[in-house]
Structure formats: structure tokens, C-alpha cells
């Protein structure tokens, strides 16, 4: 079965097999990792190993802290303004899709003066703003953007220039899919359920000089400085997600690191886009330079065939291809764990379906 779900997504088979083998007896403890105390020395070492592996894999500089938090990326939509901006302060946002819109809405709920400096809604969120086409207010507490919009399959082909304003990015769908220049950012955050494990964990990478700016009334659980000082264990963290994150990070290292991962992901996306573009039966609506490597939406020439396409795909082991309800059509999410063979199988099925139905 090839799982093209946008999240929770397909996980690497070697990682699942290792987790299954260790599930009832972790490190000879006679207990599952699901059962051990997060305060015990074995799990503290497990979390420290996951953090160290993340720092190595993503090349995170020493002046950044890595936080393992609950609440997913959605929780951080509120935590970001609470940690970086006083009520009434200006915060700049780029609006490029559904997740940008949600982040903007939550910032407004936190009393921030939201300035949308680029808005791609006029294109039905099929484009990204041209570099240099927007101006970031110099008094902005931060500039927020979503490098990859999971729902629309739109991805920035560049890192926006925020000047001296801290750049904040929701990397949920692109985390560790390729090398990251962490020093370009003040804060990187995202949910783990795409490339880094099961749902329930958010990973926040924050530059140390941005810690300690939280409002006085921010709950401790959302205060990045408090969580950093507690090594992300102010409360019971999502232990199983952290354990699996560690396994996945070691898997990434064993398969060549982010340089090799980026090459594989680029090749997978190029092959699928080439198949779509070569056909009059399928169409991708996204501006060519803004196409996502991770989430590839496509429509059929006749939407009446959508149900047959999905049923036939399921029958041959290609699942979760239905597009988001706000977009329609199909969507193939081809995260790190999707092998090249899965993309080949999808292209072969699309070719045969077109041959018999066009």
C-alpha cells in the first residue's frame, strides 16, 4: 500500500518495523516506551538523542533552541504572537493559502495588529508573491509565512527577505525534506505528522535572542523560554512521538542526510509533474515556479470520473489521493517516506486510467 495522505502520513517502513520490534520491550526494560516515565533516565536520554540528531540533520546552529511541544503547528499559531509581540504590536504575514489564513486569524485573536503584506487569494491560492513585491514594516515584531501550503500544493521557491525583522516559518509540510538554512530564520516550527512522525508533536526551532519576550500573562506551557529551560518537559511531553522522531532522524542520516533526501524528493516531484504536464487528461493548477515538492494536486478533465479514479487507485494499493474538500480533484502527498516506486506506481495507474477513460 502506498499512502499519499497529506497527514498523518506514510512513515518509513524500517522505522515502523523497528518500533514494532521494540514495542513491548524497549531497551530491555520489559516495558514499552509508551509506558516508561518521561523523567526516567532512559527516556531523558532518548529525548536528548532526538534533539541532538535533529540538530545534526538540520544543521541547527548552537544559538538556536529546539523545543518538542504538544498542540501541533496550530498551537503555535497562538504561541508565536504571545512570545514575540505585545498586544497591539504590528506583525506582518504573507497570505498564500489555508494555513496562512489560519495563522493570521489566530494572531488577530491574540490582539496583534496583523498586516497582510502579500495576499495571493486573488489567484485562488495558486501563486506565491514575486520576490521584492512586498514591504515588511520596519516596526513589525516578525514576518510570518508558510513555505509550503499543504492543501493547495503551493511552495515558495525562495526564502523571503525580512530585513532586520525576525522571519517565522511554518515548515509543517517541508520539515527536513531538503537542507535548511536555519540562520535565515528567527523561528522555524511545524507539526511532525508529515515527515517526522505521528501526530501530536510540534518541533519549534527558535533563536535564543528571541526567548524571554513572552507576555507576562502567557501560560507557562506556551512560553518558549520556560519550555527551553525545562528541556521541553515542563509537563509530560508526547513521549512516543519523540521516540519515533529519533528513529526517523537516524533513518534520514542512514539514507544520506538532507542533501540526498532533497535530491530524491526533487526527482519524485519532477517525474509526477512531468506526467501531469504531458497529458491533456490531467492538470495541475499551480503556477509553475510555485509548485510544491511535497503536495501535488491535480484534476481530471472530467470531474465525473473522480470517484472511479479513486476507487481504482484504492484497488491497486494507492490510497488517500482525494483532494482537500476546499480544492477538489486529487492530491498526492509524496513526503520523505514515499519511495520512488510509489510515484512510479501512481504514474502507471494514471496512464492506464487515461488510456481507458479518455
UniProtKB/TrEMBL annotation:
Pathway: Cofactor biosynthesis; pyridoxine 5'-phosphate biosynthesis; pyridoxine 5'-phosphate from D-erythrose 4-phosphate: step 3/5; Amino-acid biosynthesis; L-serine biosynthesis; L-serine from 3-phospho-D-glycerate: step 2/3. Binds 1 pyridoxal phosphate per subunit. Keywords: Amino-acid biosynthesis, Aminotransferase, Cytoplasm, Pyridoxal phosphate, Pyridoxine biosynthesis, Serine biosynthesis, Transferase. The modification N6-(pyridoxal phosphate)lysine is found at residue 194. One of its GO terms (molecular function) is pyridoxal phosphate binding. One of its GO terms (cellular component) is cytoplasm. Pfam families: Aminotran_5. Residues 1-346 form the Aminotransferase class V domain. Its main location: cytoplasm. InterPro entries: Aminotrans_V_dom (IPR000192), Aminotrans_V_PyrdxlP_BS (IPR020578), Pser_aminoTfrase (IPR022278), PyrdxlP-dep_Trfase (IPR015424), PyrdxlP-dep_Trfase_major (IPR015421), PyrdxlP-dep_Trfase_small (IPR015422). One of its GO terms (biological process) is L-serine biosynthetic process. PANTHER family: PHOSPHOSERINE AMINOTRANSFERASE. Homodimer. Catalyzes the reversible conversion of 3-phosphohydroxypyruvate to phosphoserine and of 3-hydroxy-2-oxo-4-phosphonooxybutanoate to phosphohydroxythreonine. This is Phosphoserine aminotransferase. It comes from Actinomyces glycerinitolerans. The gene is serC.
Amino acid at each position: 500500500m502506498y499512502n499519499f495522505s497529506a497527514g498523518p502520513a506514510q512513515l518509513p517502513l524500517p522505522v515502523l518495523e523497528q518500533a514494532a520490534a521494540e514495542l513491548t520491550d524497549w531497551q530491555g526494560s520489559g516495558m514499552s516506551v509508551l509506558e516508561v516515565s518521561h523523567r526516567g533516565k532512559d527516556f531523558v536520554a532518548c529525548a536528548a538523542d532526538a534533539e541532538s540528531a535533529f540538530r545534526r540533520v538540520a544543521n541547527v546552529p548552537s544559538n538556536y533552541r529546539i523545543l518538542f511541544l504538544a498542540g501541533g503547528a496550530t498551537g503555535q499559531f497562538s504561541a508565536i504572537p504571545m512570545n514575540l509581540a505585545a498586544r497591539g504590536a504590528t506583525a506582518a504575514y504573507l497570505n498564500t493559502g489555508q494555513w496562512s489564513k489560519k495563522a493570521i486569524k489566530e494572531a488577530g485573536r491574540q490582539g496583534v495588529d496583523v498586516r497582510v503584506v502579500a495576499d495571493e487569494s486573488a489567484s485562488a491560492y495558486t501563486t506565491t508573491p514575486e520576490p521584492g513585491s512586498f514591504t515588511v514594516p520596519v516596526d513589525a515584531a516578525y514576518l510570518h509565512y508558510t513555505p509550503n501550503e499543504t492543501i493547495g500544493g503551493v511552495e515558495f521557491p525562495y526564502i523571503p527577505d525580512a530585513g532586520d525583522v525576525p522571519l517565522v516559518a511554518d515548515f509543517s509540510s517541508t520539515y527536513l525534506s531538503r537542507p535548511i538554512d536555519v540562520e535565515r530564520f528567527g523561528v522555524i516550527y511545524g507539526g511532525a505528522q508529515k515527515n517526522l512522525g505521528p501526530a501530536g508533536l510540534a518541533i519549534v526551532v527558535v533563536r535564543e535572542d528571541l526567548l524571554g519576550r513572552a507576555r507576562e500573562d502567557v501560560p507557562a506551557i506556551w512560553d518558549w523560554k520556560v519550555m527551553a529551560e525545562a528541556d521541553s518537559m515542563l509537563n509530560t511531553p508526547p513521549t512516543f512521538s519523540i521516540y519515533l522522531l529519533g528513529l526517523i532522524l537516524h533513518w534520514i542520516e542512514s539514507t544520506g542526510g538532507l542533501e540526498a533526501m532533497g535530491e530524491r524528493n526533487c526527482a519524485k516531484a519532477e517525474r509526477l509533474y512531468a506526467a501531469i504536464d504531458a497529458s491533456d487528461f490531467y492538470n495541475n493548477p499551480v503556477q509553475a515556479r510555485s509548485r510544491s515538492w511535497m503536495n501535488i494536486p491535480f484534476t481530471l478533465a472530467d470531474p465525473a470520473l473522480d470517484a472511479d479514479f479513486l476507487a481504482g487507485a484504492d484497488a491497486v494499493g494507492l490510497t488517500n489521493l482525494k483532494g482537500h474538500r476546499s480544492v477538489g480533484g486529487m492530491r498526492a502527498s509524496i513526503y520523505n517516506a514515499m519511495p520512488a516506486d510509489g510515484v512510479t506506481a501512481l504514474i502507471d495507474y494514471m496512464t492506464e486510467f487515461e488510456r481507458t477513460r479518455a
